[in-house]
Amino acid sequence: MFPMVTGFINYGQQTVRAARYIGQSFMITLSHANHLPVTIQYPYEKLITSERFRGRIHFEFDKCIVCEVCVRVCPIDLPVID
Protein backbone atom coordinates (compact mmCIF):
# COMPACT_ATOMS: atom_id res chain seq x y z
CA MET A 1 0.00 0.00 0.00
CA PHE A 2 0.92 3.57 -0.41
CA PRO A 3 2.37 5.35 2.63
CA MET A 4 -0.42 7.92 2.57
CA VAL A 5 -3.15 5.26 2.74
CA THR A 6 -1.34 3.49 5.57
CA GLY A 7 -1.15 6.81 7.45
CA PHE A 8 -4.92 7.34 7.08
CA ILE A 9 -5.61 3.80 8.33
CA ASN A 10 -3.37 4.32 11.39
CA TYR A 11 -5.02 7.68 12.05
CA GLY A 12 -8.46 6.09 11.84
CA GLN A 13 -7.47 3.27 14.20
CA GLN A 14 -6.03 5.74 16.71
CA THR A 15 -9.17 7.86 16.51
CA VAL A 16 -11.40 4.86 17.18
CA ARG A 17 -9.17 3.76 20.08
CA ALA A 18 -9.23 7.27 21.59
CA ALA A 19 -13.02 7.44 21.27
CA ARG A 20 -13.32 4.07 23.00
CA TYR A 21 -11.09 5.23 25.89
CA ILE A 22 -13.09 8.44 26.27
CA GLY A 23 -16.32 6.42 26.29
CA GLN A 24 -14.96 4.04 28.95
CA SER A 25 -13.82 6.90 31.17
CA PHE A 26 -17.21 8.61 30.77
CA MET A 27 -19.00 5.41 31.81
CA ILE A 28 -16.77 5.10 34.89
CA THR A 29 -17.52 8.72 35.79
CA LEU A 30 -21.26 8.13 35.47
CA SER A 31 -21.09 4.97 37.57
CA HIS A 32 -19.38 6.91 40.39
CA ALA A 33 -21.96 9.70 40.24
CA ASN A 34 -24.55 7.48 41.95
CA HIS A 35 -22.49 6.91 45.12
CA LEU A 36 -23.10 8.92 48.26
CA PRO A 37 -20.20 10.96 49.63
CA VAL A 38 -18.13 9.22 52.29
CA THR A 39 -16.39 12.30 53.65
CA ILE A 40 -16.95 12.92 57.35
CA GLN A 41 -16.58 16.51 58.53
CA TYR A 42 -14.42 15.80 61.57
CA PRO A 43 -14.69 17.20 64.39
CA TYR A 44 -18.32 18.18 63.72
CA GLU A 45 -19.26 14.63 62.75
CA LYS A 46 -17.57 11.58 64.18
CA LEU A 47 -17.31 8.16 62.63
CA ILE A 48 -19.18 5.51 64.56
CA THR A 49 -16.74 2.70 65.21
CA SER A 50 -17.85 -0.84 65.82
CA GLU A 51 -17.57 -2.46 69.24
CA ARG A 52 -14.87 -4.77 67.89
CA PHE A 53 -12.59 -1.92 66.75
CA ARG A 54 -8.97 -2.83 67.50
CA GLY A 55 -7.16 0.36 66.55
CA ARG A 56 -4.35 1.71 68.70
CA ILE A 57 -3.67 5.25 69.77
CA HIS A 58 -0.07 6.35 69.26
CA PHE A 59 1.20 7.27 72.70
CA GLU A 60 4.65 8.46 73.73
CA PHE A 61 4.93 8.38 77.51
CA ASP A 62 7.93 10.74 77.56
CA LYS A 63 6.00 13.47 75.75
CA CYS A 64 2.79 13.15 77.79
CA ILE A 65 1.60 16.45 79.32
CA VAL A 66 -1.58 14.96 80.84
CA CYS A 67 -3.89 16.89 78.53
CA GLU A 68 -6.33 13.93 78.45
CA VAL A 69 -6.75 14.09 74.66
CA CYS A 70 -6.11 10.35 74.48
CA VAL A 71 -8.99 9.76 76.93
CA ARG A 72 -11.40 11.86 74.83
CA VAL A 73 -10.32 10.32 71.52
CA CYS A 74 -10.32 6.66 72.56
CA PRO A 75 -13.41 4.92 71.14
CA ILE A 76 -13.50 2.32 73.93
CA ASP A 77 -12.60 4.63 76.87
CA LEU A 78 -9.50 2.62 77.68
CA PRO A 79 -6.94 5.12 79.03
CA VAL A 80 -7.36 6.35 82.60
CA ILE A 81 -5.20 9.20 83.86
CA ASP A 82 -4.58 9.61 87.58
Automatic annotation (TrEMBL):
Positions of the 4Fe-4S ferredoxin-type domain: 55-82
Classification via InterPro entries: 4Fe4S_Fe-S-bd, 4Fe4S_Fe_S_CS, NDHI
Keyword Glycoprotein belongs to the record: no
Pfam name, any one: Fer4
Keywords: Repeat, Translocase
Keyword Translocase: yes
PROSITE patterns: 4FE4S_FER_1 (PS00198), 4FE4S_FER_2 (PS51379)
GO MF terms held by the record: NADH dehydrogenase (ubiquinone) activity
PANTHER family reported for this sequence: NAD(P)H-QUINONE OXIDOREDUCTASE SUBUNIT I, CHLOROPLASTIC
Protein name: 4Fe-4S ferredoxin-type domain-containing protein
Organism: Aquilegia coerulea (Rocky mountain columbine)
Lineage, opening ranks: Eukaryota, Viridiplantae, Streptophyta, Embryophyta, Tracheophyta
